[in-house]
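JOB MANIFEST
job_type = single_chain_structure
chain_count = 1
residues = 548
[input]
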Amino acid sequence: MFLSLIGHYYPLFGDGHKRTETGELRVDTLPVIRTQVEIRGFEDSILDCRACDSPQTVHPECFPIKIPQNDPFFPPVNISSGQPFCIPLTRSMPGQLTLGYREQMNQVTAFVDASHTYGSDKCEQQHLRTFKDGLLKATPNPLRGKPLLPTESENHECQAPSGRCFTGGDTRASEQPGLAALHTLLMREHNRVSLKLKEMNPHWSDEQFFQNARRIVTAVNQHITYNEWLPRVLGWNAINLYELNLLPEGYYEGYDPYCNPTVLNEVGIAFRFGHSLLKPSLERMDGIFAKRDPPVKLSEHFFNPDLLYQPGMLDEIIRGLTTVSMETLDQFLTDEVTNHLFEDKKQPFSGLDLASLNIQRGRDHGLQPYNEYRALCNLTRARNFDDLRREIATPVIERLKRTYAHVDDVDLFSGGLSETPLHGGLVGPTFGCILGIQFRNLRKCDRFWYENADPLIRFTDPQLTELRKVTLSKLLCDNCDAIGSEQRSAFDLPDPFLNPRVNCHDLPGVNLELWKERVSCSVGRTNIDIGAAERISPCVMCTCTKEG
């Protein structure tokens, strides 16, 4: 907790609200992240690790965080019990089959496969399906808008007054309204695509509609992640260095069946850079992009998505996400997540500190100090704090000196967030290195990557050309309730010259007519059934395939 207090407590003054070139829309739901599975107690109960002595009195896998005497928010002593006050944390479940170094389980699939929408295993997927027309389950909108996510009443984390939270392919679908809105749009996109496929191929089965729509939405997910999101996170120099450029045409020939797509444990920390970008509230914007009051305060809406039932609320949140600047990526986090994360309003000081949790989680997973990863990523291994000056600003180094006894003690989360961003990117060189290696593997190791050339599973060349047109802006236009315009790049702030808002109809989209199943091929005046071959001249024999 002391490390969070000194190194990550959000300043009340300074340049924390400086506008950036990238909008607040961080699609946590698009890229993959390593999500740990916490150890459970008797009969799968959640361990109560709030007591500072819980490793001895509750379970040895409790890993609570002690509150220092000088914390400006949390009391060092529990007011009701008189015992020392701690923030609860349960260790991640080990997943290795044999004795040796502890390895944690990943709760989601490693690949960029839209598991946030479809689930990470067959059981989850079946729970989300209607098994009619290939559609995903949805909740009818009581205000005649487009459907919302399905709901469940058995979520123990749900804080909604209605008692019902949304469910999706990822357990965080209701974590906060911005995420819930994005999960909703991706569910709508799947159902929009599936219904369009039904119009063109009414003879298909439910399974064909579902799997083809899933394949298209997964490709959309991959393209937006690598084409729009990653360049803004890493910068183009790192995109080139780690071979993350997408192809403008043709097929990707880099698939390696022997490479390891497993998510690096370090990614579970590096990917948390986004916590620094959070603002205390989500701004709302009306149809003419004027602010609506009140904004959506994060601490009041963790696992409470009820406001999305209000008329126009989802669109207002999306407009705000694409219009209002995010926070600067630095070592500071808003106190909405350092003091009030998942807070129970009926219980004082029941919130968590996200920065402390991130640091403690890295230690739980046995990650090496920041200095080790500097060396692995071809930076100079620091012998003292002053050796960090090329990558970290002097005032930040002074904060690190007050927090850590030696440069080798600096945690990966603290050191990585403290670095000056790469040119054109958000993260510094160490987080950039970790993420660059991971996303290179996620493309190179994925047999079902949307650009892959495998003739048994690939998209046709015309289909691939269409998928390369997709942008997040068009996805928002297609699936919000009543958004009529959007800037060309939803990840960048609107600008009348560099990034103007345009009518949604003027944004290029995917022509799904190219997924209409062929029953024959026409060559001149000759019709050839699929799978058949016909001689169309003395020297030319043509075979009709699904690709033409």
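[summary]
Residues 1-35 have pLDDT under 50 and may be disordered.
The first helix runs from residue 2 to 8.
exit_status = 0
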